[in-house]
Structure formats: structure tokens, C-alpha cells
């Protein structure tokens, strides 16, 4: 086994550090961002996601903001024979567009990397867990369909976040959980 050169180790550490620098949407506007979105593509290194990704379908998420500036996310996922509802709350981190959430054993970090508010948003989520830390990128769209150009833009971001294309799921449309089954 060959021992890496000290210089190579420093370069790798710098690359890992650079990958940790996630940009946040400049001048993020919560009023424009709130509302209904479709989760149309996701890339993640989470082992549970990787096992399930080929059978997943597009979901609906409704995003709102509390008076304190926290982000509330309500998701409706089509799972097997039912529509599963999830509610997540992320506290504002002090930087607009950057939110933190905690549960029993893990911390979650959610960043709005980029959005034009009318067509798409790209979210970065990091799970800081002792058992399995993971990273995810999500492409949200206001319409069910995603343009090839937007999908290409999303796919180009995947390797910059330390993920690979085989971790990508382009989620097909689902009529199983119509908009009326979600929260409004």
C-alpha cells in the first residue's frame, strides 16, 4: 500500500473543505419563495434514499415562513398505496436562506442555494448524524414538468457538492397524491 504524499493530503483536505462551502441565494426573499413546489429531482448519498430512489415519485411540498423567520415545510410523498405526509420545521440560522433543524440524534442544515422564485429552486440539505451523515440536493419546480435545461443545470451541480450522478433520481410525475390531499 502506497502512503499518500503530504502535499496530496493537503490538496484533498482543501477539496473537501471547498465542497463544504455551499452558496446561498443572494437577497433571499421569503415572500416570493413561499408556496407550493414539486420535488422533481433529488441527488443524495443517504443509504436509505439510494435503496428507494428507483421507486420514488415526485412529491408536493408547501413552504411557509413563521413570523420569527423559520421555514415550515409540509410534504406529501406517494408511498406504496398511500400518501404520506411529513412536516418539518427549520429555524433561521441568522443568515437568510440558511436554516437549521434538529431531531433526536441529528442536526439538519437546509440552504436555498439558488432560485428564480417563479420556476425553480435548488436546495442543499446536510444531515449531521453520528451514525450516517449525508448530503442531498433537491430540484424544486413550480410546475410538474422540468425543462431539459434546468435539469442539466441541476446535474452539473451534483459533483460540486461531493455527489455522483448515480445518486440522482429524476422523479416521475405521480397522480397518486393530488394537490387536494396536501396542506394549504
From TrEMBL:
UniProt source species: Mionectes macconnelli (McConnell's flycatcher)
PANTHER family cross-referenced by the UniProt entry: LIPOCALIN, LIPOCALIN-LIKE 1 PROTEIN
N-terminal signal peptide: 1-20
PROSITE patterns: LIPOCALIN
Coiled-coil stretches noted in the UniProt entry, renumbered to this chain: none
GO molecular function, one term: small molecule binding
Domain Lipocalin/cytosolic fatty-acid binding: 34-173
InterPro entries for the chain: Calycin, Lipocalin, Lipocalin_CS, Lipocln_cytosolic_FA-bd_dom
Keywords tagged on the record: Signal
Family: Belongs to the calycin superfamily. Lipocalin family.
Signal among keywords: yes
Protein's recorded name: LCN15 protein
Pfam families: Lipocalin (PF00061)
Amino acid at each position: 500500500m502506497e502512503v499518500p504524499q503530504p502535499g496530496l493530503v493537503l490538496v484533498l483536505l482543501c477539496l473537501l473543505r471547498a465542497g463544504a462551502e455551499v452558496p446561498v441565494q443572494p437577497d433571499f426573499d421569503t415572500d416570493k419563495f413561499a408556496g407550493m413546489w414539486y420535488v422533481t429531482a433529488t441527488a443524495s448519498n443517504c443509504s436509505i434514499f439510494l435503496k428507494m430512489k428507483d421507486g420514488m415519485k415526485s412529491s408536493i411540498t408547501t413552504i411557509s415562513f413563521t413570523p420569527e423567520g423559520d421555514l415550515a415545510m409540509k410534504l406529501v410523498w406517494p408511498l406504496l398505496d398511500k400518501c404520506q405526509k411529513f412536516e418539518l420545521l427549520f429555524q433561521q440560522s441568522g443568515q437568510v436562506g440558511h436554516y437549521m433543524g434538529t431531531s433526536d440524534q441529528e442536526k439538519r442544515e437546509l440552504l436555498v442555494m439558488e432560485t428564480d422564485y417563479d420556476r425553480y429552486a435548488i436546495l442543499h440539505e446536510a444531515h449531521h448524524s453520528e451514525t450516517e451523515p449525508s448530503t442531498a440536493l433537491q430540484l424544486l419546480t413550480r410546475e410538474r414538468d422540468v425543462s431539459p435545461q434546468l435539469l442539466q443545470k441541476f446535474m452539473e451541480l451534483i459533483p460540486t457538492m461531493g455527489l455522483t450522478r448515480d445518486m440522482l433520481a429524476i422523479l416521475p410525475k405521480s397522480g397518486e397524491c393530488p394537490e387536494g390531499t396536501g396542506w394549504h
